[in-house]
Amino acid sequence: MARITVEDCLREQNNRFALVQLAAKRTKQLLSGSKLLISEAKGNKSVVNSLREIAAGAVRLKTEEDMQKERELALKQREAELALAAEQAEADAKDAALSNGGSVTVVQSLSSTASLEERNEPVSTGPAEVIVEELEDDEESELVDEDEE
Asked: Is residue 103 situated within a structural domain?
């Protein structure tokens, strides 16, 4: 098994300071039980394994730009999911109303053309249950305020 050198790692990570940060972070992850991303790591210490993963290009340091792109992608996906859910709910409501012999009047569509950011609504990338709980808490506080008056 060949030795791993700093030069091998610097081919993947150009900055020595960033390399040290990445190696330290990955070593901590390996020590806390993360799976190895390379196969030839048996018997090596965590530091050596993390450097081998860096040299192989299996791990890299995320920049602020990378994280911003991920947030934008998550926001777009969330908006698409909300629009699809709103369209499905609207279609289900129309079908239910028509099957009962009633008429359909759409008061306000949830899938408006304005994005969540434009409407100043909170954007959550978490599960839907969290959003529902937050809405319930807000409604309870509004009810308490109305009762006090």
From this structure: yes
